[in-house]
From TrEMBL, chains A, B:
Domain YDG: 22-158
Single GO MF annotation: ubiquitin protein ligase activity
Domain of life from the UniProt record: Bacteria
InterPro entries: HNH_nuc, PUA-like_sf, SRA-YDG_sf, SRA_YDG, UHRF1/2-like
Phylogenetic placement of the source organism: Bacteria, Bacillati, Actinomycetota, Actinomycetes, Kitasatosporales
Chain residue ranges for the region called Disordered: 1-27, 170-191
GO biological process, one term: protein ubiquitination
Protein name according to UniProt: YDG domain-containing protein
PANTHER family per UniProt: E3 UBIQUITIN-PROTEIN LIGASE UHRF-RELATED, OS04G0289800 PROTEIN
């Protein structure tokens, strides 16, 4: 059934469940808008004041970089600071992973694209807004702000041009942040990246050290060509974490526990007790071997990364 | 510690565990070689006759497209036919998922890059070989050959230029098929893509229909922002499968069972009994609801895809 796009145009019948995510038909990256009101009316950013538009259960539809926050803007990579008392001079409480911040966190889990608009600070167009296309929330973490209060930070990475949803393509709203099928006799399906599992030479070594057995639950998945496991870097390789690609920073996990660790739902204490953060149950103790020790500093980094105090371990 | 590269040069100390995968230092895409012997001596393809070089437990290091097989070569995408009685006039038995075929299947699981060399069939350089860079094994499946015998087919997708391992970069052998970290104060770590989890609007709908509960094991992972599940297309969207992005072709699975389904280790019969192919144990029955029915034709396609006869269900 056809639903209304933010812009008002109906979707064609090949695009079910359009829900405000992705490119807005007729709006190209680089297009300028005079006011927040214009951004809202066209559906680029459907919030008149808030910097984050979206829903916590699905993801963030769009963000506006107003230039007033402590955002770390590298163009194609943005370290976006969450909402809630973010001015260092006025921050009086911790930011919470709720509302807009929860929406951005959900985007990391669903892989849905986020529209990014920047407020132009200088030059002839100062004060206006520029839509800069679609980004993906690759990671998020908490940091201690200058006054000791917690801020949430989100790593947004620009999607390739082919995934920016050119209006020339069919169903632009849904092709945004997606990849088309190579052949198209039937209506083309589009997909967004929900998760990318990476590996490294060190990661493959750790997987072999544990014979592809999960260090949390002890399961060993039998794949088509042998054991299957995934390597998790406790302290991520990417900035700002800059974790080392070393065996003491890598765990051999089954995909389920890899997802939970990456989402901060699996907390590992220095004594290697593993706690399920969702219900505070104790899952057991991380399996460590003589040849493969885990660096406790990286475990502490992971706890802080996900909003726990650095000097306190998590109690089941 | 420094190890010898296929080309003979030592790796620098920042590249542990080099194992013959990825770009060969000094060899750029497009470079020609007069003979198979030259290919072998430089380490581009360390087999004098076989088309696939590698190890079943780690992956394929390289393949040579000799132009004699029924390969479907689109340049950046290659449907590569496995080894073992591949000439339709002479195929007298099924190809097995062993040796070179097992190595290519392992590459799909490990994400390690595969060097691709093409034999030049026509023109002034006819008969010579051209190294065409690094590819990823994205998928593989079995088909019935012209004479009713099974052939294994592998979908190789060319890696982006940035991942082709320019010699100018440090540790070229390991940067091949990889992505560099954005910052490099410490020696840069490199990673290869082991797995990409995609989603679609229909997939997200199915996940909500089941409240992110795995249809095989009933587990519901609690992520940071709600339930976490992955959607699996029973019949893949990509050619040559061309499965529909429709609810009856999608399952809501936990990451563990998603991996097993994709690798053909989870067999679902028409009566929805689920069998663990590794040990032929019965895992139970797929959870189906009134609003979400599974199309048995796609289940049959999945069984054939992974080498089971189409008209026979799998016995536990």
């Amino acid at each position: 059934m056809a639903k209304a796009l933010p812009g008002g145009q109906p979707t064609d019948s090949d695009t079910p469940h359009f829900d405000g995510f992705g490119a807005v038909p007729g709006v190209r990256p680089g297009q300028r808008f005079a006011t927040r009101r214009a951004l809202a009316q066209t559906g680029v950013h459907r919030q008149s004041i808030a910097g984050i538009a979206g829903r916590g259960d699905r993801g963030a539809e769009s963000v506006v970089l107003a230039g007033t926050h402590a955002d770390d803007d590298h163009g194609d990579v943005i370290i976006y600071t969450g909402e809630g008392s973010v001015d260092p001079r006025r921050q009086t409480h911790d930011q919470q992973l709720t509302r807009g911040n929860a929406a951005l966190a959900a985007s990391a889990a669903t892989g849905l694209p986020v529209r990014v608009t920047r407020r132009i600070a200088t030059g002839p167009h100062a004060g206006s807004y520029r839509y800069d296309g679609l980004y993906r929330v690759e990671d998020y973490w908490s940091e201690q702000g200058p006054h000791g209060h917690r801020v949430w930070r989100f790593r947004l990475v620009q999607l390739p041009a082919v995934e920016q949803g050119e209006v020339a393509q069919p169903t632009p709203a849904l092709t945004a942040g997606t990849q088309m099928r190579e052949r198209g006799d039937r209506p083309r399906s589009v997909s967004s990246v929900q998760r990318v599992v990476r590996s490294t030479a060190t990661a493959n070594l750790v997987k072999r050290m544990h014979d592809y057995t999960c260090q949390v639950c002890g399961i060993r998945l039998q794949g088509a060509t042998g054991g299957y496991a995934e390597a998790a870097h406790i302290r991520p390789l990417e900035p700002p974490h800059d974790g080392p690609d070393a065996v003491e920073n890598v765990l051999c996990l089954c995909p389920n526990h890899h997802v939970l660790l990456d989402q901060g739902m699996l907390i590992i204490n220095d004594d290697l007790t593993v706690v399920n953060r969702a219900d505070s149950t104790l899952l057991g103790r991380l399996h460590e071997t003589a040849e493969h020790r885990v660096d406790r500093r990286h475990l502490a980094h992971h706890r802080v990364h996900h909003g726990l105090p650095t000097d306190v371990t998590y109690q089941a």
